[in-house]
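Predict the 3D structure for this chain.
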Amino acid sequence: MSAIMEKRPDEVLDYVFDFGRWLSTGDAISTATATATSAPVNGAAGTVAIDHVDFDSSTATPWVTGGIDGETAEIVVSIRTALGRRKSGVLRLRIRN
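Done. Predicted structure below.
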């Protein structure tokens, strides 16, 4: 997944990463993590953060909080599967009031 989405600073939103088409028959997500990185905006450090990550056998869903107007963050979701595969997806997030 590679996309650009928008959220307001006060929103807490979930973004579903669907790995189902990539997974082999009989394989499933066993762990999922997410990180948020962003560049400073007008000298202020970015504040986008990952609250938590939900996952099931084929999807991983980070819950994203914070941000300041004008900030752009990159959300990277990384999974490992029961059969040992590793895969990542990226979401670019713009913060707008």
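The CA atoms of residues 71 and 90 lie 16 Å apart.
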